[in-house]
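anyone seen this seq b4? input:
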Amino acid sequence: RTNSVLIDVASSSEADKIENLIQSLDLPVSQVLIEAKLIEVVLSDENSLGIDWEMASQVISEIEPTTTLTGPIFGRASSSLVPVSGVFSFAISNKRVNAVIVAVSKQGNAHALSQPRILTLDGKEAKIEIIEEVPFVSGVTVTSTTSGGVTTYSYSYTIETRSDIGITLTVTPRIQKDRSVNLHLDIKEIRIVDYLELPISAEAEAIGVRSRTPHTADRITTQDVVVWDGQTLILGGMISTRKSTIVSKVPFLGNIPLLGHLFKKTAYEDTRTELVIFLTPYVIRSFGEGKMLTNEEKEIEKQPSAGIIEKF
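predicted toks r here
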């Protein structure tokens, strides 16, 4: 779609002014390519309180200085990396991302949750979702049948689904005149921390059948930070504890109504994890800049090992 305007001018000088004004307004819309890496680290016993970022920062020798609006940014590796409200952030050169990932992986079992690239307009939000649907038993209908003095129980389940379990990362970039980028970040994480076993009826309780409803924990983090074009922002300190239920039972005997619990053993295990987010904004003000970034991405994809994160 094009817009045409007919302007009647009295002199060539006015025409020149109008032409200059049109040229200043007729600019391509600036865009931001956001490259993200979301890594989950299963913390070892030695690092149960979280990743030792002081140790990780020594590996990359220097954390790049940057500016900040309202979110905490640490300018040097020698700075005190103390979490603010449990979450902290700092910026590094994009070339040092793999070194940080290696340092982090040495402190626990790390694996990539997602590595998306999203193109968005200046001032428009981009959303990254890592969501899973979790079915659970919300109800049980028990039917008993007696024949020849023998009572047989049958039951049917009512299944519901939670479709909001996971991580939602919303990024709104705003490009500054000096090509720095103000990133407004909203991070929402919903995790299942446990399952609540609730009684349904006396009949269901008699045969050991209960509904299992997921108990979730929500965490919402908001930050405003400023990084340079092509600089990588790292967010850490988002630690969660997951409770796992491990049921061991004797085959066949463990499924016997009323007596099955005698042949079962239930154990509970706590797993602590830390979510680490890497965000790299690339400013695109012209077609040429966009083409150059596209060519760079194609070259990276051709490499047999495009990133050390794939080895986890």
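Residues 62-85, 303-312 have pLDDT under 50 and may be disordered. Residues 175 and 181 are 5 Å apart (CA to CA). kinda curious what u guys think
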